[in-house]
Amino acid sequence: MPGLEDLYREIILDHYRSPRNRGELPVPPAHKVEGFNPLCGDEVVLYLDVDPETETVRDVKIAGQGCSISQASTSMMSAAVKGKPLAEVRKLIRAFKALMSIHESKLEGDGDDGTDLAAELAGVQLGDLEALQGVVKFPVRIKCATLAWNTLQQAVDESAQAQA
Amino acid sequence: MSRLDVARIKRDFPLLEREINGKRVVYLDSASSAQKPVAVLDAMDDAYRNHYANIHRGVYTIAEEATAAFEKARATVARFVNAPRAEEIIFTRNATESINLVAYSWARANLRPGDVVVLSHMEHHANVVPWHMLAAERDIELRWIPLTDDYGLDLTNLDAILDGARLLAISAMSNVLGTINEIRPLADAAHRHGALVLVDACQYVPHVATDLQHWDADFVAFSSHKLCGPTGIGALWSRVELLEAMPPFLGGGEMIRDVRLDGFTTNDVPWKFEAGTPAIVEAVGFAAAIDYVTAIGMDAVREHEVSLTGYMLAALRERFEGSLTIYGPTDVQRRGGAVSFLFEGIHAHDISQVLDEDAVCVRAGHHCAKPLMRWLGVPATTRASLYIYNDEADVDALVEALAKAQKFFAV
């Protein structure tokens, strides 16, 4: 039976209590995307400003409301992608989603194949984001953690389209 | 003190003996669905083991036993809500389907563009979405009875709201606020304006002795699973004349008298509305649940819940003064045992997660009442709801677990 400390790591509670990059950015040049989790009413508003020359995230701001997991995940995501090239952001999104899809048994180290996961995670530094992997042990909360990242995916796609 | 022997009642519910994380289960989510007593489980087991066959078809002994048990269950349900006739009870899947039956059958046959259906701000989605669907399809106008500051219906402009209305569809007890709505005066007002009255009695019937003749409603919807019965079965009551005049809802076997190549004629009420093989054993379980709560006594059930709700409201207020807001009437006589609240700065899902550590089961979210959540101005609440098997120790466990959550998320 997983305990609360698996879910609510100190770094998560820290991001929940003191979210990074709260605010808004002028649209355009930034893209504004809203993500919504109808089940629990979690809401993420993401402003993503991509430098078209360097294809790098120039700035990112977040708003919204919801549970500690959704809001901490949003805050950690914003800190992780700020200043990063879009290619790296895409890798990070894939890696995070892979992290959220690992079966619990693999977390315990007795899983048989982690090959797809290994491919996604290869060379990606998750850093603080790894603290969110405990969420996998609480299946109903996974959507809370991935909301920010699905929203980011949409913002990245829209930014790329706008430049094409 | 309560007249109910809760310690004895608890022993009738096997699930309540379960432990999670080494703690006994404290089940405070009965407004969502109630636990099942052994009497219900045994009745259903016996029906499957010894009396199971399809109903209204075979002429062999077992088929006759199954048919008799199914129809006896209908009579039991009718008696429980004081329906004048057993054939006025239609078995459905749940209260949601009961309301949809009225929306699809009665409303689509009787309402014309521009007609008005009146609802309230405290309705469950089950009594909102079918009317939105109808409104979009038939150009029906929906009007909404607003709420007062003390979480009741604001009837100030009731006559203006009911002007031109064809139907008032209203909850007898709010699943979020716990508010009990006085149905009789509403029904009288609606009838004066020529409107029919549908009562969503899903939260009310399991907790308060129900006399639907006193309500003078036209349709009453409720379910089995909130009443300690099985899922998959609910009921719609209506007057037989009204049911006879309504077109059928679903088509198929059982609901017909004759089928030819060029058409069909419908069966008598209530079978006209019961197409296909129904939830036979669930009907037996539904009746067993009614027998179980009837043996306890519905007046004793209500008395117990009034007293325990008062205890819970006081305990929450005293322990968390200033950091917890309760949404619902403070007068326990005006309300049921579903208590919704919000902790300052802590999301309902986080509360619920911490409570789960102590095996305290509560509901967190919008409770299928998003229009009400918008009116309250909150994204989600935590809801603890009481039933016959809850006692003061359960409420104490809730309060202690909440204190733990408050400490855990302290800013």
Give an overview of the whole structure.
The complex is a heterodimer of chains A (164) and B (411). With 164 residues, chain A is an alpha+beta fold. Chain A has helices at residues 4-7, 10-17, 68-81, 86-100, 104-107, 115-121, 142-163; strands spanning 31-37, 42-51, 56-65. A three-stranded antiparallel β-sheet of chain A has the order 1-2-3, covered by helices on one side. In chain A, helix 2 (10-17) crosses helix 3 (68-81), helix 4 packs antiparallel against helix 6 and helix 4 (86-100) packs antiparallel against helix 7. The radius of gyration of chain A is 16 Å and the shape is globular. The model of chain A has no long low-confidence stretch (mean pLDDT 84). With 411 residues, chain B is α/β, with parallel strands linked by helices. In chain B, 40% of the residues lie in helices and 17% in strands. Chain B has helices spanning 6-11, 38-50, 61-80, 95-110, 129-138, 158-162, 183-192, 212-215, 240-245, 280-296, 298-319, 348-357, 370-376, 392-408, and strands at 19-20, 23-24, 26-27, 89-92, 116-120, 141-145, 165-171, 196-200, 219-223, 234-238, 256-260, 263-266, 324-327, 338-343, 360-361, 363-365, 381-385. Chain B has a seven-stranded mixed β-sheet, sandwiched between helices. In chain B, helix 7 (183-192) links the parallel strand 7 (165-171) and strand 8. In chain B, helix 3 (61-80) crosses helix 10, helix 11 packs parallel to helix 14 and helix 12 packs across helix 14 (392-408). The longest helix of chain B has 22 residues, at 298-319. Chain B is globular.
